[in-house]
TrEMBL record:
It comes from Tectimicrobiota bacterium. It catalyses: ATP + protein L-histidine = ADP + protein N-phospho-L-histidine. SMART domains: HAMP, HATPase_c, HisKA. Residues 316-368 form the HAMP domain. The keyword Cell membrane applies. Its main location: membrane. This is histidine kinase. One of its GO terms (cellular component) is plasma membrane. Its EC number is 2.7.13.3. The lineage of its organism: Bacteria, Pseudomonadati, Nitrospinota/Tectimicrobiota group, Candidatus Tectimicrobiota.
Length: 607
């Protein structure tokens, strides 16, 4: 008894709870992965920020030095006092020593180029340009601007249509009179070289972006025509507004990435560029994801091993007894009151099994007694019905004889009484026949067969063709009617009774229509319906109409002049359907027609 107590339901639940103790291990693994992910994120953000700062310092230092050189050349004697030929030769000499420059030129006080490294530039008028006007008005000591031949970019000078960074230095004589400007253009490709040696993993990159969002260069060099515009990126817009930081968003390729952004003003802050340093998140987290997958695989194997043992114990101790109890309940519901379950142990489930078996025995005993009573009552009904037929036949015979032999002597009133006698006899015969059918309805034939429900309905349609024609009613039989495993005669009667009731319901209705079809045909059985557009049925009568001697049109008949029926047709239908293991119900509202539904379950032969 001690061991039986230890293996009670509480102990089994404790074992299940112990099994669930593996949850902390799962939670710790998930938390570890989150910590690793956050660590990688912080490290990546720091690296990208450092790279951005290095690039900014490189480019700013390079351009500042180039402007400083241009400022130095602007005060040399040859530039201030030399002839155009001497100045041009001097500029060419500078280009030989400093190939980073694309072009160097000098303007007079009116903005006309008087000396330049490119002969075609001499004589060109740049007096209308903003940088020249600002220098002449002494608004700026020097000007820095860019030409990238991107959207909205207009060159002040035509220099082989190449992108460049331009520096403009104003010139003054000792009396502080404006003499013109010295203009130097630095090759953009030289600027781009400052980011080409930077490598950030396999997917990382650096974008040098102009003031209009055009990509000037990436780590592969100038990319003015290949990488497009980044003005749609949040990172660029924030950098353009003067902010610096890092965010996570989709890059130009549509991949999720970390993007570090920073403004790049250049000398005197007049460039208006931005630096975007990116790296795909997939690459960043690849290693951690691989580690997480390995940990998850190990955890899964351990979990499966533990759960296998726990499931075995739970199945033997709880699941199997519960399955047996469920099978027992199902068997009892299907009418097998002799079914018993195996009692395992003396715990709560074992006691429940004992109680179930006791209940089954009690139900079986009472069911057998009730079945015996039911058979006895059916026998009484059958005997009484047969016994009543003999005197009714005699009454009908004598009434017919009176009508034939003494019709003239009876007079009009006598003939009316005689016809009433004959009508009542016919009603009694119909009632007796209904009682006999009701007593037989619960007993199906010993051998059920596969029958075509469509063929049965065609036969019923032919039998009722006269009534359908009289009522001018249309009977619509739906497609896809299946084979059913049934008592053919009984199912024939089901369809005949339901369609007959529908005919009574649609009497004198406009466009009387009766529909018969199937809603469901699958592994769980067949679901048939018989629908009409007749007078309908009150909700309160939906259950009552299936009881014996409850007329379907008791109230409607009185209201609309219909002949009141005896109320056995639907009771017979219900008994037949229940004998087949199915169900029947009605869906209807007054003046909205009625739909009778019934199901026929799948037989053991079909499984």
């Amino acid at each position: 008894m001690r061991w039986r107590f230890l293996w009670g339901i509480k102990t089994k639940l404790f074992l299940f709870a112990w099994t669930m103790g593996i949850l902390p291990l799962v939670i710790s693994t998930v938390l570890s992965s989150l910590v690793i992910s956050q660590t990688l994120t912080n490290r990546t953000q720091g690296e990208l920020q450092t790279i951005s700062q290095v690039i900014e310092q490189r480019i700013d230092s390079f351009l500042s030095y180039r402007m400083k050189m241009a400022r130095f050349w602007a005060i040399t004697p040859v530039v201030i006092l030399g002839t155009p030929e001497e100045r041009t030769a001097y500029f060419h000499q500078i280009l030989r020593f400093y190939p980073q420059y694309l072009w160097i030129g000098l303007t007079d006080p009116e903005g006309r180029i008087v000396a330049a490294t490119a002969r075609h530039s001499v004589g060109q008028d740049v007096g209308h340009t903003v940088w020249f006007q600002q220098c002449k008005a002494r608004l700026e000591e020097e000007i820095c601007y860019t030409y990238t031949h991107g959207p909205g970019s207009r060159p002040a000078l035509t220099l082989q249509n190449l992108p460049y960074v331009g520096f403009t230095i104003p010139l003054f004589d000792p009396q502080n009179r404006f003499l013109g400007t010295l203009h130097a253009a630095v090759k953009m490709e030289v600027v781009a070289e400052h980011i080409q040696d930077i490598r950030i993993g396999q997917s990382g990159g650096v974008l040098l972006v102009g003031s209009q969002g055009e990509v000037i260069a990436d780590i592969d060099g100038l990319a003015l025509s290949s990488l497009g515009n980044v003005s749609s990126l949040r990172s660029y817009r924030r950098a353009r507004s003067g902010q610096a930081g890092i965010i996570r968003e989709a890059n130009l390729n549509g991949r999720d990435a970390f993007i570090n952004f920073a403004p790049l003003g250049g000398p005197r802050g007049c460039l208006g560029w931005s630096i975007l340093v990116t790296q795909d998140t997939d690459e960043i987290f690849t290693a951690s994801r691989a580690q997480l997958k390995l940990s998850a695989a190990i955890l899964l194997l351990g979990t499966l091993f533990i759960l296998a043992g726990s499931f075995f114990l739970l199945d033997r101790g709880i699941a199997e007894p519960l399955r047996q109890l469920m099978e027992g309940v199902r068997a009892v519901c299907l009418g097998d009151l002799s079914h018993r379950v195996k009692v395992q142990g003396q715990d709560e489930l074992g006691k429940l099994a004992e109680a179930f078996n006791q209940m089954g025995a009690s139900l079986q005993e009472k069911g057998e007694a009730l079945q015996a009573k039911s058979k006895e009552l059916e026998g009484y009904i059958y005997t009484i019905s047969h016994d009543l037929r003999s005197p009714l036949c005699s009454i009908q015979g004598y009434a017919s004889l009176l009508a034939k032999e003494y019709q003239a002597a009876l007079g009009e009133e006598g003939r009316r009484y005689l016809e009433r006698i004959r009508g009542n006899v016919r009603q009694m015969e119909e009632l007796i026949e209904g009682l006999l059918e009701l007593s037989r309805a619960g007993r199906m034939s010993a051998s059920l067969t596969y029958e075509s429900s469509g063929r049965i309905l065609k036969e019923v349609q032919e039998e009722l063709s006269y009534q359908l024609e009289q009522e001018k009613a249309r009977l619509v039989i739906g497609p896809g009617l299946p084979l059913i495993y049934c008592d053919r005669r009984a199912i024939h009667q089901v369809f005949a009774n339901l369609i007959g009731n529908a005919l009574s319901a649609v009497k004198e209705r406009p466009c009387p229509t009766i529909e018969v079809g199937i809603l469901k045909n699958g592994s769980s059985g067949c679901h048939f319906y018989v629908r009409d557009n007749g007078v309908g049925i009150d909700r309160v009568d939906h259950q009552r109409i299936f009881e014996p001697f409850q007329s379907l049109f008791a109230q409607a008949g009185k209201r609309e002049g219909r002949e009141e029926r005896k109320g056995l047709g639907l009771a017979i239908v219900k008994r037949i359907i229940q004998a087949h293991g199915g169900e029947i119900w009605v869906e209807s509202e007054p003046d909205r027609g009625a739909a009778f539904h019934f199901t026929l379950p799948e037989s053991d032969h079909q499984k």
